[in-house]
Design a protein that fits this description.
The chain is an alpha/beta fold. It is about 55% helix and about 10% strand. The chain contains 19 helices and 8 strands. Its main location: cytoplasm.
Length: about 450
């Protein structure tokens, strides 16, 4: 598995501190093999690897993760990105009924998916109608009727008068029926063949032209592996579709087909089907698919934990400095500013402390270029000045400005800003404003 392979590569990476070109190349080779093993199509693998390499080269050294974890994180993020660029759900028509047509090979799971989708939509207060437009196989209609009963969704089946033997006529008349009977969604199950053939494509295209679907879903079995790409392309050319539904994800296929189809057709994957029961169905989640393709769920969880632990430790450190009896110094100010910048959203944790929101706002209002100047100013101060900024008089300000290549007015502004923050913190502490965060002293 990829997990094993990467673990081998990464054991030599561990502790190196940063990624060398050679590390990146070796790693890229392993990821390449792994993706191919997961049935991702070759051209897709090539492009994907190129992106990974580029990102790995540009990656900053992380404090939280070792190089091995860092690469896995990049691969995972890219996979999610590629898989999920435009995930979406059903787009309803302005005037009901919304017509959804299913297309795909025989055995891909269309009829099963029709039942699942009907139940899913009914659970969301829709009033779907299932339509049996597969008249190829003798028991296809019965199969849909059984599913409809279980999903408690009515099934429109061919009867004398509404197009026996003519799937196009069944589909067409079903839309009128739905309109008259207040069904807001119509789900049309169609016939498939074991392989792609012209007659099947023509019939699907005829149904399409008869009902002008709002959504055509291409239903594809995740187990068909490398063939998925050809089939997906054939249906795209022959019928066209708006989105993809992946079935049989409960099998042991790793799902590289998803990546290939998404990449080659540019169509979003909308649904994932994971079993024979009606409930085994959900919107497609790119993050789940990514960890499945990588086959590294555990590793990814570990990475998340490592990162979170690291970030929380930083935030706790910051919070205890702020809450301690020691006076807040310019060193603390600088450190906190850098940390808030680096941690980004997680520093929101701080905002849970009363009054902290204000300090955060003050720091957030400083833009990155200012931050560099502020850092330069503080670093040009003596330790005594940083600990006790009150001693920073006019001549000291001039010296600091010269030392940091800034203006005296900027030094003054910083000192004023700092006193503001210090005053605010003092008031908070006096007012007992620090009830303490969980796990923090006092
Ligand atoms: P269709 O020919 O495209 O209509 O495919 P069907 O809906 O008849 O499904 C073909 C077979 O695959 C049936 O035996 C289904 O029970 C099975 N099937 C469909 N979807 C899934 C799924 O997500 N997981 C599993 N394990 N089986 C599925
Ligand atoms: Mg069927």
């Amino acid at each position: 598995t990829l997990s094993d392979r990467l673990t081998t590569v990464f054991s030599s990476l561990r502790g190196k501190g940063r990624l060398s070109e050679e590390d990146i190349n070796t790693t890229a080779r392993e990821i390449r093999v792994a993706l191919l093993e997961a049935d991702v199509a070759l051209p897709v693998v090539r492009e994907f690897i190129a992106r990974i390499k580029e990102r790995a080269r540009g990656a900053e050294v992380s404090k939280a993760l070792n190089p091995a974890q860092q690469v896995i994180k990049i691969v995972n993020e890219e996979l999610i990105e590629v898989l999920g660029g435009e995930t979406r759900t059903i787009r309803f028509a302005k005037t009901p009924p919304t017509v959804i047509m299913l297309a795909g090979l025989q055995g891909s799971g269309k009829t099963t998916l029709a039942g699942k989708l009907a139940k899913w939509l009914a659970d969301q207060r829709n009033t779907p109608l299932l339509v049996a437009a597969d008249l190829q196989r003798p028991n296809a209609v019965t199969q849909l009727q059984v599913l409809g009963e279980r999903a408690k969704v009515p099934v429109y089946a061919p009867e004398p008068g509404n197009g026996v033997g003519d799937p196009v006529e069944v589909a067409r008349s079903s839309v009128d029926y739905a309109r008259r009977n207040n069904h807001n969604v119509v789900i049309i199950d169609t016939a498939g063949r074991l392989g792609v053939d012209e007659e099947m494509m023509r019939q699907a295209a005829d149904i399409r032209d008869a009902v002008s679907p709002d959504e055509i879903l291409f239903v594809v079995d995740a187990m068909i592996g490398q063939d998925a790409v050809n089939t997906a392309q054939a249906f795209l050319d022959g019928v066209g579709y708006d989105a993809v539904a992946l079935t049989k994800l409960d099998g042991d296929a790793r799902g590289g087909a998803a990546l290939s189809i998404r990449h080659i057709t540019g169509r979003p994957i909308m649904f994932a089907s994971t079993g024979e029961k009606l409930e085994d169905f959900d919107l497609f989640h790119p993050d789940r698919m990514a960890s499945r393709i990588l086959d590294m769920g555990d590793v990814l969880t570990l990475i998340e934990q490592a990162q979170r632990t690291f970030e929380e430790a930083e935030v706790q450190k910051m919070a205890s400095t702020l809450a301690s009896d020691e006076d807040f110094t310019l060193d603390d100010f600088l450190e906190q500013m850098m940390m808030i910048r680096r941690l980004g959203p997680i520093s929101n944790l701080l905002s849970m402390m009363p009054g902290m929101g204000q300090l955060r706002d003050q720091i957030d209002s400083i833009d990155d270029r200012d931050l560099d100047r502020i850092a330069a100013i503080i670093r040009s101060m003596t330790p005594a000045e940083r600990a006790n900024p009150k001693i920073i008089n006019g001549s000291r300000r001039l010296r600091i400005a010269n030392g940091s290549g800034t203006q005296v007015s900027e030094v003054s502004q910083l000192v004023t800003r700092f006193f503001g923050a210090q005053k605010m913190l003092r008031q908070l502490k006096q007012g007992g404003g620090f009830p303490g965060m969980p796990g923090l002293p006092g």
